[in-house]
Every structure is written in structure tokens, then in C-alpha cells.
């Protein structure tokens, strides 16, 4: 007997037929004698629909009310899955964020989970009742509804798994594992049997779209065993098809020959580039830009500052998620006098391409190989950032697919048999 | 300065453009110096969509989880209205059922409001903040989400108006008042400037579709001044178009000449007829039918029992809302041995037609006139019930519109100028 947390994404929850499929997978785990909690996303498309309502209502919407609106999507699917399980003879009930409760910070629309009260939840699970938990939502200290930001359901699942000390956290999605890159762009992409937490962090944060970054960071911190697998299709024995296990680095290193320099290529078209021109080149200038952005809970990703012009000023460029651009521009316009920049320029026609791999640490030349491969195809690099296991570049979004294909081949990731 | 509760139905909340129209009406009341609470329905069609998900998931759905699912519709519109008001410069916040809280009974899917905590709500309203309250929902004693049953938002509005001691409860809807009958069926239907609580009770309960029955009963009990008016169109002075005031009987009686024998004709196609054949004619037999239905919170409307056959048994017929038929049949099938009937027959092809008027009490012959008018057109009457101010008949639903038109003319309700 094990205690497991299962998480199903929006595509797996899109409509009652698919919810029945989810319920059948849950039932299978219950019949194996396991204690099960299920974390669910909203139906595919539903969160977008709700977010669009908010944007239409008010471009600079109140994040507190935004959370009231968007949290409803997961509320619906958790109720529907609970009743579907009951219909199949499996005892189940929904636990909304404020009912459990899942306490979060009060940073509405991008709250962080602080603590999860598990006494009542665990008592119900031990009594054989499946706990169905809407992902993405919690309750802030003042009793208001909070949400974790887009893709937050993965984080909910890992946090619940950590809180109930689950033996495993199975993340079911519409892909059957983690690939070397997006198979829709590169048909020869290969499924990885194992990937390290650190690699997943980079792959997820740069748009591999399999797991939310924060969930992987949390899994690493809390040592939660996470498995990514498909909610569609079954193995011949009726079990799940094999997915991708996310493991500690030591486990990969023992694999010897199988280890590779580069694990995968990721891309992200949802970034927006913002440039402030002629920022005074004095101590505190950069802080005056990023402190108010941080206060507004806007996620800044790449930051590029060149050496100062001879005029004593410099240009500062950075990227934010496209969805946060309007709020970022608003914050910066209000802070114009305090920062003292000349112009505020933005560009949403950009894409970030990253090559990721734990093997990179011991190999020079990865970045050079990347720039050469892109230059050979005439792809202009607008900005560069690097980390220990990643090199990322910002390019014009029109070149996204070309860049991914070129790099997938350049690093020898193409599968031998075409998909 | 007055304290008012405004309520907007699903058609008024269907989409952001309409929500802006609602916000403009709310803003107008705020600018008049009034303290305002707004109760909102889900967007038109949304509750149906959610109910259909539940039915599809499980024909005999768990009402507890059903409430989790369907309460989300009003949660969405309350958040959207709050942020739209803010965008227009009006301070506002949403108050979900569990946040206020609105305490209800634990009869899920048809809960009753027990108490409403108003301390925090009134403090915010007095401070000039508009309170946006999702209709239809509350929280049960065990902390689970509860809903009041379809159309419950009217009841929420009247209950909030009573709890905050509002000077007025304005119910905005997609019709501009209460008519003598459905104007879509009878173009010569007339708008009533005043109608009594008692008449509205009968008109609403038999399908006039303007106000939910329970809300009118509650308004009568709590002496809440209710006004029904349109959320579309304005008077030439920019104010609301005149609607229908719901008043005490004494106010109508002082109107002398204007009082009429019959106030209106209502119809309802959402009833289903259930017949149990050969029920033993012994004490307790009827109780054995209706006690389990009541325990399952199924609303039984008309009940007809004829005198016993010579065999010592009798047929019992009653009607329930079409939406509760499946549950009713389930309860009755499970109780077959205890009740001891022969057959369980049901028919959803029925309509209930009612003539309503406080003047009826002092006039004999209303019923006779009704049966004759229907018989003249060959319309067969399947069942009859009467109250002090109403006569209702059950007919085949195909004859609904014909019956309404015939009766509207027979009782002299047609307007002199065709609409």
C-alpha cells in the first residue's frame, strides 16, 4: 500500500468523457489498496476564457477579484470528478482551497503556498475516501481566494504530495513524458526515461510546457518523487504507459554511457522584451527599476545591461511573461521620474530558445556551438543568458521552429527512427 | 440617502458589455449617495452548462458536489462585476457565500438561508464600498458550499435586503415588469404597475418566470419592498423605466376601480406528472409515498388522489419539477415494497395553466368559467388544484399557448391597443 498524489491537467479534464477516463485511472490506484489524493486543473480552455473575461472587464484588473473569477475553473472540475468517482462506486469528496485549507501568501494571481492543513484530509484518505483537490487555488491570510499563477496546479500537486508525505506524485498530462524538445516541431524528438530536477527546472521554465517551474523547484526542495505520464492510452497489461521519472542528479550520473552533453532544447514564445533607454549610470538606478516590478509580483526573466555610453547613461533590457507586460509597463510609466529613463520600448515578437543539460558543466564550447549553428542559418541573437546547465538566447519569434530544429540536430538529439 | 440592494439576473450579466451596463446602473445609485449591495446571477446559460456537466457525470449526482460545481457561475460574475466597478472608479469587492458568510441549511441543491452575518458587510457598505454578492450560494454548517436551487439569486437578494434592513430591493431582469401573462404568447398582455405579494407568489410559482417563489414569500414575511424592473433601456430622464412594485394587499384594495377579478394567467411546462397505480387504500399509504420524497428534498406540487376502486386500492398522481423527476422515480422505485403500488407511470408532456387574482376570493364562478373556456376549445383537463387566489389545471403541453390566450381573453385581460 502506498500513498500517492495524482495530478491531471486541463486536456485530461476537458469534458465528462475524459473525466471518466481520469476517474478510471484513480479507481485503479484505489483498487491496488493505495490512499489517493487527486489534484485537478480546469477544463482545457476554461482558464483562458475566464482570464479573457477579466482582461475585457478591466485591463489593469484587481488581482484579488481576478482570483475569485479564475479559481472557479478548478472548483468545477473537482466537483465533477468527485461525483464521477462516486458514480463508479469509489468514495470521494472535493476539498476546495479554503476548505482544507491551503494557506498561501496574499500575492494575488501569483500566490505562494505557505502551509497545508492535512489533519482532516489525511483522516479522510486513511478512511479510504479519495480526496479531490482543485489545483491552482488557496486562501490568503485575510480569507480571500488566491491563485498560484498559470500552471499552478502542478505546484499544488507537489505541495500536497509533500504535505501528506506521499510515496509518489504522478503528473498525468497530454504528453507521455519529457522529450528532448517539442515533438510538434521536431518529429525526431526522443522521450527521456529520466531527467534531473535541475534539468526539468530549466526545461519547464523555458517553455517545455510539461511541468510548471515552481512545482519542480518544490519537488527538488521537498524530495518528492515526481513522474510525468500520459493520461491517454494504456500499456498492453492495462497499466500506465511508461513516462519520465524526475530524479536526483546522482541517479543520472550512475548511468554512465547514457549521459549526454545536452538533454534538450526548449523554446518560449510567451516572453515580452522591455527596454528602458538612457537610464542614468549610477548606483541604485537598476534597483529603482526592478524593486517596483518585484513589489507588483511581476516575474522578470532575462536582464541585460550593457556598459555605459560615454554620455553617462545606459540601456537596460529585460523580459517578462507576455501576460504581465501591461502591468509591467504601467509600473514603469508611473516610476518614470524616479528611474529617470528616456524611452520605454517593448516588443512581444520575441522567442527564447534554450539548450539544457547537466553534462554542460564539464564541457566548454556548448554556447559557441549554439551561436554558430544559429548564425549559419542567419538567425540574429538579440540577447543571451547562461546558467550552469543552460544557455538561452532571445531571437525574433518567426525563427522559433527553425532554431529548435537546427539545435536539435546540432547537438545530436535526433532519434534514429523518424516518428 | 438610502440603503438599497440591487439584483441582476443572468441575461443582464451575460458578457462583459452587459456587466458594464450593470456597473453603470450601480454607479448611478452610488452617486446618488446610496449604500449599495449588488446580488448577481451567473451569466445566462452558464448554470445550465454546469448542471448538464453534473447530469452527464452522474444521473443521480451527489448534491454536495453539484453545489461545488454550480456555485462557480455566480462566483465568476461577482468577481467580474467588482473589477468592472473598480475600473469605473467605484470602490467594490466581492463577498462569496462562505466569506460573508451566508449560513444555510445542509439540504444541498435546495438549501434554505438561515442567517446572514452582516457586521463586516455593513461596515464596508457604510464606508462607501459596493458589496458584490454572488446569488444562489451559501455555506452549510459543515463548511461545505451550498446552493439554494434554481432561481435562488432572487431569494439571496431579498434575504440580504432583509438582513441589512435595506430601504428597497430592486430586482433587475430582462423583462420590464410583471405582465398579466407571458407577452411572447399573448402580445396584448399588459404590464401591472402593482401586484400583491400573494399574487406574485402564485404567478412566480406557476411559471411567470419573473421572480422566484421563495424570494416573494421571504419578501412578504420580512416586509421587504421589492421592485421588478428592466436592466435594459432607460427613461428619457436617464433613470430607470418604471417597473412593477410588489406591495401589500391593503395597498391594492385602496385602488378601488382598478382592482380586477383576475390579475394574470401563468403557465409552467417544467412539471412532470407521476402516477402510482393500485396503491393500497389504507392509513399511512400516502405518507409512505411522500415522506421519502420530502426526505430527498423533492418538491411535490399538485397531488391528486381519487376515491378508492372497489378492489380496495387507489391511484395517486402528483407533479414534481421536471429536473427532479429522475431522483423522484429512483426514490419511488426503491420504496416499491414499502408503498405496495402496482405500476409507476410518468409523463413529462404536461403543462400547468393557472389563473391568479386576489379578487377571486369574493367571486364564485372563476373556476367554472375557466373549465368552460378550455372545453370550448377541446382542451382536456387532466388534474385540478385550487388555492384562495388561484385555480390551476394540468393539460397536455401542446395546448399551452392556446390555453393561455383563450383564458387571457376570457378574463378580459387583453390590452386595448395591440402591442
UniProtKB/TrEMBL annotation, chains A, B:
Sorted alphabetically, which Pfam families does this protein's record hold? AA_kinase (PF00696), ACT (PF01842), ACT_9 (PF22468)
Gene3D superfamilies of this UniProt entry? Acetylglutamate kinase-like, VC0802-like
Keyword Coiled coil in the entry? The reply is no
Q: Which GO terms describe its molecular function?
A: aspartate kinase activity
* UniProt entry tagged with the keyword ATP-binding: yes
Pathway it works in: Amino-acid biosynthesis; L-methionine biosynthesis via de novo pathway; L-homoserine from L-aspartate: step 1/3; Amino-acid biosynthesis; L-lysine biosynthesis via DAP pathway; (S)-tetrahydrodipicolinate from L-aspartate: step 1/4; Amino-acid biosynthesis; L-threonine biosynthesis; L-threonine from L-aspartate: step 1/5
Classify the source by domain of life: Bacteria
Q: What class of enzyme is it?
A: transferase
Q: Which InterPro entries match?
A: AceGlu_kinase-like_sf, ACT-like_dom_sf, ACT_Aspartokinase, ACT_dom, AKii-LysC-BS, Asp/Glu/Uridylate_kinase, Asp_kin_monofn, Asp_kinase
Ranges for domain ACT:
274-350, 355-419
Under catalytic activity, the entry for this protein gives: L-aspartate + ATP = 4-phospho-L-aspartate + ADP
Q: Which UniProt keywords apply?
A: Amino-acid biosynthesis, ATP-binding, Kinase, Lysine biosynthesis, Nucleotide-binding, Transferase
- EC code: 2.7.2.4
Q: Which family does it belong to?
A: Belongs to the aspartokinase family.
Protein name, UniProt field: Aspartokinase
Origin species: Sphingomonas vulcanisoli
Amino acid at each position: 500500500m502506498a500513498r500517492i498524489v495524482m495530478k491531471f491537467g486541463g486536456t485530461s479534464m476537458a469534458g465528462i468523457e475524459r473525466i471518466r477516463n481520469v476517474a478510471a485511472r484513480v479507481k485503479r490506484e484505489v483498487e491496488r489498496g493505495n490512499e489517493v489524493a487527486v489534484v485537478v486543473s480546469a477544463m482545457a480552455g476554461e482558464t483562458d476564457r475566464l482570464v479573457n473575461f477579466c482582461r475585457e472587464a478591466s485591463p489593469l484588473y484587481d488581482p484579488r477579484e481576478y482570483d475569485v473569477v479564475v479559481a472557479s475553473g478548478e472548483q468545477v472540475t473537482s466537483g465533477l470528478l468527485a461525483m464521477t468517482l462516486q458514480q463508479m462506486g469509489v468514495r470521494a469528496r472535493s476539498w476546495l482551497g479554503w476548505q482544507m485549507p491551503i494557506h498561501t501568501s496574499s500575492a494575488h494571481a501569483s500566490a505562494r503556498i505557505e502551509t497545508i492543513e492535512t489533519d482532516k484530509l489525511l483522516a479522510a484518505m486513511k478512511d479510504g475516501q479519495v480526496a479531490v483537490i482543485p489545483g491552482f487555488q488557496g486562501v490568503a491570510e485575510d480569507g480571500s481566494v488566491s491563485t498560484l499563477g498559470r500552471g499552478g496546479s502542478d505546484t499544488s500537486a507537489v505541495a500536497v504530495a509533500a504535505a501528506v508525505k506521499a510515496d509518489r506524485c504522478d503528473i498525468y498530462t497530454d504528453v507521455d513524458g519529457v522529450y528532448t524538445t517539442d515533438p510538434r516541431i521536431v518529429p525526431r524528438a526522443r522521450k527521456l526515461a529520466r531527467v534531473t530536477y535541475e534539468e526539468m527546472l530549466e526545461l519547464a521554465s523555458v517553455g517545455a510546457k510539461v511541468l510548471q517551474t515552481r512545482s519542480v523547484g518544490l519537488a527538488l526542495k521537498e524530495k518528492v518523487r515526481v513522474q510525468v505520464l500520459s493520461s491517454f492510452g494504456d500499456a498492453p497489461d492495462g497499466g500506465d504507459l511508461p513516462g519520465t521519472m524526475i530524479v536526483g542528479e546522482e541517479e543520472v550520473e550512475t548511468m554512465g554511457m547514457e549521459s549526454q552533453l545536452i538533454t534538450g532544447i526548449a523554446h518560449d514564445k510567451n516572453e515580452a522584451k522591455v527596454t528602458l533607454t538612457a537610464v542614468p549610470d549610477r548606483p541604485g538606478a537598476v534597483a529603482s527599476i526592478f524593486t517596483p516590478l518585484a513589489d507588483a509580483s511581476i516575474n522578470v526573466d532575462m536582464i541585460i545591461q550593457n556598459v555605459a555610453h560615454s554620455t553617462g547613461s545606459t540601456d537596460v533590457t529585460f523580459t517578462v511573461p507576455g501576460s504581465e507586460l501591461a502591468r509591467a509597463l504601467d509600473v514603469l510609466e508611473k516610476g518614470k521620474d524616479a528611474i529617470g529613463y528616456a524611452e520605454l520600448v517593448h516588443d512581444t515578437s520575441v522567442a527564447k530558445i534554450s539548450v539544457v543539460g547537466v553534462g554542460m558543466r564539464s564541457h566548454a564550447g556548448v554556447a559557441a556551438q549554439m551561436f554558430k549553428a544559429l548564425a549559419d542559418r542567419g538567425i540574429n541573437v538579440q540577447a543571451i543568458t547562461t546558467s550552469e546547465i543552460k544557455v538561452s538566447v532571445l531571437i525574433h519569434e518567426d525563427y522559433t521552429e527553425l532554431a529548435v530544429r537546427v539545435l536539435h540536430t546540432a547537438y545530436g538529439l535526433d532519434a534514429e527512427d523518424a516518428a
